[in-house]
Amino acid sequence: xxxxxxxxxxxxxxxxxxxxxxxxxxxxxxxxxxxxxxxxxxxxxxxxxxxxxxxxxxxxxxxxxxxxxxxxxxxxxxxxxxxxxxxxxxxxxxxxxxxxxxxxxxxxxxxxxxxxxxxxxxxxxxxxxxxxxxxxxxxxxxxxxxxxxxxxxxxxxxxxxxxxxxxxxxxxxxxxxxxxxxxxxxxxxxxxxxxxxxxxxxxxxxxxxxxxxxxxxxxxxxxxxxxxxxxxxxxxxxxxxxxxxxxxxxxxxxxxxxxxxxxxxx
Length: 266
What we know:
- This protein is an all-alpha fold.
- The protein is 72% helix and 0% strand.
- The chain is built from ten helices and no strands.
- The radius of gyration is 22 Å and the shape is globular.
């Protein structure tokens, strides 16, 4: 070796297995704990919405007092939407701050940052959903679900949260700023109001009924209602799972394409 030559640096080995994903999940969870306001609002807004529909509007919608049983399944999906929407802002902020550039120089899969955001969001939302169901019980919600129904309910809610969170992550990649991501994601939060989440589809104007009946939220909320209260869902569970899988597949493909396109040119 020449006297003034410096030794060639040895590149660090890439992280194997799911190590990178685990690191980014921990990072996202720590960010969630530091951003306590967003986590609190993701829980408080659906709870306040449930209390408003139950105590303020419930008597007019259903004078018998049974409206709480009808509305809680819709509130569950609304809660999941509020919680997942913050993922779009977190992803957009990572893209704008330049942290993705640093991750790309490290011996890990930079795309694991998206997985971290999504998994952390699913965990946050499952906790928030459990809290919302608990508050519903306190205000009069009386589910009749069996242990098997609760397991099926947990699986469906997890699948829905996973699908909607990946979709919000892709929106965060597509948006030019965290503010834009927040605005685009907010549009999706209106879907439960155009479904059977809060009122039966048959009570809507005739021109709106086909839209409400054939959009993703209606079969999902009817399946949740069937599992919790024993109502007849017909073929809705199959449509619910199909919609979740389609949304998840489209969001994963779209998000991966956007990440390669945007992060690759940084």
